[in-house]
Amino acid sequence: MHSMLRRLGREIVCWESLTDPGRRSRLFNHEIALDTIKRKKGTEKVEALCLNFQCHTSDKLTPEDFESMANLRFLQLDHADIAGDFAKVFLNLRWLRWRGCPQHLQVTNFHLGNLTILDLSWSKVTKDWEGWDQIEMKNLRVLDLTGCADLLVTPKFSGYKNLAILILERCTQLVKIDHSISDLKCLVSLNLKFCIELSRLPVEVGHLTALKELLIDGTSVQDIPISIGHLKQLETLTASNCFSLSQLPRTICHMTNIILLSLDGSRIAALPDSIGELVHLKHLSLRDCRRLRKLPSSIGNIGRSLVELDMSGTRLSKFPDSIKNLQNLKVLRMDSCFFTEFPPDIGELTSLKEIHASWCRSIEGAIPNNITKLHNLRILRLRHLRISSIPTEIHQLSKLQILDLLHCNMIKELPRLPSSITVLYVEDELKSSHLP
After folding, report:
1. Nearest to residue 142, comparing CAs of 206, 176, 191?
2. Over the stretch 220-278, which tens digit does the pLDDT of each residue have?
3. Predicted model pTM
4. Which of 61, 82, 122, 123 is deepest in the core (most CB within 10 A)?
């Protein structure tokens, strides 16, 4: 949220009761909130309460501190400790943020039947944390364990069958996901980004039939299980900077709803031919896959859906002939590749809006004339190429706004450029001497 909007909202809340904070709907200031509950001044009007002790305190919060706020829906208890019988205290609580929660709980009847979101990020919870058994939260939809560095193995998930979003990002010591993850039939998002010690995904991931988003960026995952082919609802799979990942399973072809596939920086040396069956794929990113030397010809089969293709930093030296079938491609990124010439069929990709081909040091000669057929082109970046000229008909590209020819030292003269250009990068000598 923008800080100005947040400040405006807080001012509006303060005007709800200028002299009695306990009659406001939200208590977002720690000192005011703590003073209100300790003096038992809270009322049914309070729906959100924020406490942040910065570090653990010896004081314990009790059920009596909260019982007057029956309509509490959001509670922040960062680094707080609680003790006592909490039966019928948090009946309407929907969202509990408890970062830095204690490892040992002194609570009974901690029933959170309506809890939807539990945020325990940056806490020292482990697989054996007492809260997994002591807190009843059968309707939980979101579990956020971001940055829980003591978590080696995930807890059992059997008690959270309504869970839709599971966030384990930056659990840097996590090495195993419990097999009970297969019980999460409602899970739509699984975030494992930067779990750097995680080297394998359990086969049971393939049982998450409702999953739409799987994020494993920055993990040590070596293989994606064949069972991933069962994830027919999956729309996003990102595995950027998975430096141990060397291949994709052929069963990826069964993930027919996938829209985004990102494998940036992985050790992928080849894509399976079955990738051509991903008929809804819109974004394919293979940036810095330095072992990748070619694309399968089947990539042309996704011509009706693919809108962005990023091959930058690969060892690709040639596109397959089927590249001309990518009729809906809007963004082509091929920076720092090993092409010796511009793709000869580039003019067939009439939907292209952006071409990024800088630092392709092997490209020589002239840019093909058929590039002038790209009437939708807005950005053309050719920095650090050894090209000798650009087509004289380039002025026909009436939508071209950015042209980057910086350090293209073989170009001695510029033709007439489109009047639509707003940003031009060329050497000063060329700009002063040859611009019309």
Report:
1. 191
2. 999 999 999 999 999 999 999 999 999 999 999 999 999 999 999 999 999 999 999 99
3. 0.93
4. 123
d(CA 182, CA 372): 53
Q: d(Cα 414, Cα 419) in Å, to the nearest integer?
A: 14
CB 369 within 8 Å of CB 393: yes
> What pLDDT does residue 56 have?
65
Helix and strand totals (H; E) in the chain: 4, 24
Residue type, 245: L
Q: Which domains does the chain have, with CATH numbers?
A: 1-90+97-104 (no CATH), 330-436 (3.80.10.10)
- State yes or no: pLDDT of 217 exceeds 90: yes
Dihedral, CA of residue 13, residue 14, residue 20 and residue 22, to nearest 10: 30
> Where do runs of H (alpha helix) occur along 90-155?
131-134
What DSSP state is assigned to residue 176? B
| 367 exposure class (CB count in 10 Å sphere: 0-12, 13-18, 19+) | buried
CA 50 from centroid of its chain's CA atoms? 28
Own/partner long-range contacts of 239-246 (Cβ < 8 Å, ≥24 apart)? 239/263, 239/266, 240/264, 240/265, 240/266, 240/285, 241/217, 241/265, 241/266, 242/216, 242/217, 242/218, 242/266, 243/267, 244/199, 244/220, 245/221, 246/222, 246/291
- Residue 29 to residue 10: CA distance in whole angstroms: 10
Q: Which amino acid is at 166?
A: L
Sign of dihedral through CA atoms 165, 169, 172, 175?
Answer: positive
Question: Is residue 227 within 8 Å of residue 206, measured between CB atoms?
Answer: yes
* pLDDT computed for residue 413 by the predictor: 86
Q: What pLDDT, on a 0 to 100 scale, did the predictor assign at position 411? A: 87
Q: What is the mean pLDDT of residues 119-139?
A: 94
